[in-house]
Design goal:
14% strand; alpha/beta; 5-stranded parallel β-sheet; 7-stranded mixed β-sheet
């Protein structure tokens, strides 16, 4: 059985039911699709969408249910009386009213101060019967200025969406006793908790819930995020914000608008990234941050390199927080090449078995924004070949591509950003030479934590805060802890710090008997023990220093000397070991890492 799709929004004084219809029309026309990708569409024209449901076309996407949350009119009027004052000059600023010469009709209608659009239509029918059709077609243009009950009646009876949504639409009224003030967060939280309890009983936790959090008062928006952070919303909730853009549309009175999905746990999402590159003292981290700020404005392909856990994806998240349009794809998620090609370029209807309708690809959807290819080294050679041609820009800096099954070439302009945890040398081996050249026009390297050990204390405190432990678990800052952390290679970087913090806190939660059975007497000892057992090993994918690669090159050994082979091996081993320690532990004395005296270390170094 297919999951139900539920749409939820508040009524607000500046955006009425006509604007709700435009939002639903964007889904109806296929401008947005409920796929796994984040919802995003800009440049939505209200004039076009006002006619979408009336157009002669096959039925499009419909939500199974739309819930429209409403406070009492008296409560809404306390927020704003703009609807009363703005109506007076509506006929003077509306382009369509002027073009149809309806100014006099609207001037008289507004002067009557009638209670609803129904009464206004009755007045027009009596006094201007030949203009009734024009008046009815323009009512939506003034919809936000009608009382809430009148707006709801129009949506159910006269809106173009009415034939499709009449049985799917439900206004949820909160009484003045339940919700006396839309500035009172506690009252809003209380009614929303009750509302979702009813919702779960009707539709279950498996339904898909799309919640427009941008309409309503500022306090209703806060309430949505509080509920999400507290885990009180159904698991399949997705938050969107819907807002006018500053540029005007085809009609000066109706600006184009944008729909964008945002994290439901926005507070956690933002706090998780606070440490990422802000106010960093490490020269290498600061350099990476400054490079990204500069490169992202230049339009060339950017390649971000760094070990796992160094913050490559978080660097992209920062761009999203700057209100940039970002589409991300994990290149490791493709299980076949056709899926990858369709995902990037889209496909026409019938392009392959199962392609029942045309689909836009990421190249088209990323237009005007940033397309992020994470783990790019996972792409097959066949897909690299397909992308290689598309990633060559023309004289206007456009990428050109052809959807699967289509004979028409399309173009799009965006910034391509790629990321990999492989080294430059490894990428040159894994990727086609021309493809590598295309994606590495600009290069940013994120340093591992072991190259900025002087910041380990700040990194540790940030990670501990990010994990949001209860206040009763203050961040540990003992000299023994920091001394140990500075000696760890931390191959998982920030992820390893998180694991250590989790082990440290977990020991504090263990009952005393379990602590004794573990055989350790402190949270630090427990964290050291668990981390060493499960995470402290040298990662297989990490490339060994050149000296280690030459260690067992017997032909090289034989050509260099007549000495006995085991002496050559011993000498090479010591040289490789010293090289490896110096490279990976630059802030620590090598003899401490090798657990030997300083004099013995220099003796070994001399021998090697």
């Amino acid at each position: 059985m297919a999951k139900e799709n539920i749409y939820i929004s508040w009524h607000y004084t500046t955006h009425g039911t006509a604007f709700l219809q435009h939002q639903l029309a964007a889904f109806w026309r296929g401008e947005l699709q409920l796929s796994e990708k984040p919802l995003y569409k800009e440049g939505l024209c209200q004039l076009e969408l006002s006619e979408a449901f009336s157009a002669n076309r096959q039925p499009g996407f419909l939500f199974d249910k739309v819930y429209y949350l409403c406070a009492e009119q008296a409560v809404l009027d306390r927020l704003s009386l703009r609807r009363l004052s703005y109506r007076k000059n509506m006929y003077e600023v509306d382009k369509a009213v002027e073009e149809t010469q309806m100014q006099e009709v609207w001037r008289e209608v507004i002067a009557q101060n009638l209670s609803s659009w129904v009464d206004e239509m009755t007045y027009v029918k009596e006094h201007y019967p030949d203009r009734l059709e024009d008046f009815e077609g323009q009512i939506w243009r003034d919809m936000q200025h009608y009382p809430i009950d009148s707006q709801l009646a129009w949506f159910r009876r006269k809106s173009p969406a009415a034939p499709y949504y009449h049985a799917r639409f439900e206004a949820v009224h909160f009484s003045q006793e339940e919700l006396p003030n839309l500035r009172d967060e506690q009252s809003i939280l209380t009614v929303l908790q009750g509302f979702f309890k009813t919702l779960l009983a009707r539709h279950g936790a498996e339904a898909n819930y799309i919640i427009n959090v941008s309409l309503g008062s500022n306090e209703t928006q806060v309430a949505w995020f509080v509920l999400a952070e507290a885990g009180l919303l159904p698991p399949n909730c997705r938050f969107i914000k819907v807002y006018d853009v500053k540029t005007k549309g085809a009609d000066p009175r109706f600006k184009n608008f944008q729909i964008q999905e945002i994290p439901s746990r926005l507070i956690s999402s933002l706090s998780a990234n606070l440490y990422e590159h802000d106010n960093l003292q490490s020269p290498l981290r600061r350099l990476a941050d400054l490079k990204m700020k500069t490169y992202i404005e230049q339009g060339f392909a950017i390649l971000i390199l760094g070990e796992r856990g160094t913050g490559k994806s978080r660097m992209i998240s920062r761009l999203e927080r700057e209100n940039r349009k970002v589409l991300a794809i994990n290149c490791a998620s493709f299980d076949d090449d056709n899926k990858a090609e369709s995902e990037f370029f889209g496909h026409s209807k019938g392009a392959y078995t199962g392609a029942d309708q045309a689909k836009k690809g990421l190249f088209e959807e990323a237009r005007g924004g940033i397309l992020f290819f994470d783990e790019v080294h996972h792409l097959s050679k066949r897909v690299q070949g397909k992308l290689m041609k598309a990633l060559q820009t023309d004289e206007n800096n456009n990428y050109r591509f052809r959807p699967m099954g289509s004979s028409q070439e399309q173009q799009s302009q965006f910034t391509a950003v790629f990321a990999s945890n492989k080294s430059i040398e490894e990428l040159r081996e894994l990727l086609l030479a021309d493809f590598f050249d295309r994606i590495s026009q600009l290069l940013i390297e994120l340093p591992p934590l072991r190259e900025s050990r002087d910041e380990i204390e700040k990194d540790w405190e940030t990670v501990w805060t990010q994990l949001r432990f209860a206040p009763s678990y203050p961040c540990p800052k003992s000299p023994e802890l920091f001394q140990w952390l500075k000696k760890q290679p931390l191959w998982g970087n920030f992820r390893d710090l998180q694991k250590i913090a989790i082990y440290y806190k977990a020991f504090l939660d263990l009952p005393q008997e379990a602590q004794q059975l573990e055989g350790v007497d402190s949270p630090l000892a427990f964290a050291q023990k668990e981390f060493k057992a499960y995470h402290g090993h040298f990662p297989k994918q990490t490339k060994l220093p050149q000296a280690f690669q030459e260690l067992f090159d017997l032909e090289l050994i034989a050509s260099e000397t007549e000495e006995k082979t085991y002496k050559i091996l011993e000498k090479r081993y010591k040289k490789a070991l010293i090289s490896w320690v110096e490279e990976n532990f630059p802030a620590q004395p090598v003899w401490e890492i090798l657990d030997m005296s300083e004099s013995n270390y220099y003796k070994m170094k001399k021998e090697s």
